[in-house]
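[job 4417] fold queue: 2 targets
>>> target A
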Amino acid sequence: DPLAWECALYYCVNDYKAVVRDGAFSQTVQNTWRNDSATHSQSDDLVYSPPKSRINNTGRNFEYRVHNLAAQALNVFMTDTFTGSGRIEQSNKRPAFSSDVIQALYEADDVPIRVRNLAVSMSNNMRQQNDSDSYPFAGTAYKTQTFLHVRWPWTAYPMTLLTVSVMCLFATIRQTTCHKVNAWKSSTLALLFFGQGLDSDHDDRSPSNTLSQMTQRSSNLRVELLETDNHGWRLVER
């Protein structure tokens, strides 16, 4: 079935709300105002002065102007671009269009959406131009800041382990001090002399109560591993 649309492109004043959330920029049109009674001639500029009740203007300018030469040039360009024809040849089913724009409109599923997207693109281009009448908007900017939230109940278990470890350390130090335990550190001589007892045939052996005494005695000591009667093993001094 044939379909027909009537779409119009016109100058208007929009009231935008811009938001930056989590680094993503988004904007929405709050209000739109257009001057339906505006007339356009070859020598006059297009002037738009929206009422404050329609547009929330917080800047310095309350009058928006489109230069007559720019309006004329855009009018000629849009007229030439969107004027054309197209058809489908019945003989070979090949499309025949006067321009790519007309073919794109013919193949579009929704022509009003295409025209609306064109209007948005033109508006964005105008807003991005380096206009001497433009001014920066004074607003509030936010930045990301690291925030630490400590859940103290979760630290109960590691703090308890730390407390018990410190108490065990001081208890060990106290017990070794009270019983006057010698500091053997990582020496294995203590296990050699006092682990299971070293059988020695010499009764005149020197005392081996300190690390230095055990080191001195071990320098002249030779031992061997022998099997006992109960099928065990024992170090015996040679």
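>>> target B
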Amino acid sequence: MATTAYAVYCFEVLAASLERREALTLSQVEVLWSRYGNSTQAEDDGEEFDNYDMEMTEDEHDEDEGHHEVKLESIERDTSSLQPSSISGLRISSPTTGSSTPSTQSTTSSQAAVDSTSKSSSKSSFFSFGHKQQPAPPKEEEYPLFVTWNTINSRGHKSLRGCIGTFNAMPLSEGIRSYAITSAFEDSRFSPISLQELPTLSTSVTLLMNFTPCSGPLEWNVGTHGIKISFSYHGRHYGATYLPEVAVAQGWSREETIISLMRKAGWSGRSSDWKKVGDLKCVRYEGQATTLAYSQYREWRTWADSRTKE
């Protein structure tokens, strides 16, 4: 299942590369994101109680004063267990992953960024590892995946800024780290993302599953399936894919989606001739996506930074 922590990790990896610092590992981000959620929930619960108390009439407050004090004491005990402990007290065994080459070509600079972010974060101010040997972590889940970057303007309009992924199953920490960098820096349709652009970005991580060959190019459902096509035309081989959300976002029918996907692959025939491409093969798949805006990442990171000062 795609979790919000995966999108947080994309921002963490990209920001660390642009800021020339070490990135946290995925396992560290997952722990911190969980503690952050518990912390904000506890604060929300406290605010709701305060609002209730303010809305009481004077008579109600007097009548329930003794009982009110008991309830407050109880709430303080309950929420205290939700407060995050100092981050420096966490002990996490950082997973070790092998190297993998993304299916999209990468330049030396982007590979260096991937290598930099894959280093152990044991020196990070966020975590202090004890000398006691940690148990081996459970085997990581592996999925084909895509990482998408979008820019969001002042009116909330979203524009694609980069999207690259793989149909080969990869361990999540390795796959997300690799394609967060590759899609930000190596999508040939765009210039590399810069540090100044970070505040305008949102990111999505899509895990792919349930791949099924189609008996025909229209044997799939808009809003449910992503589509991967391959075909030959005039002696050349073509291939391309659209994630499940693309056709919905564009308002396309299945036929319009196939024609657009063929053009994305490089086909230049007339729209009315798409059915004449005799060996058009189609595979449908499903995806689980999670999306995060930079502002949400920044709030989390500020919270995480503050834990080291307590």
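[job 4417] complete. Note on B: The first strand starts at residue 142 and ends at 152.
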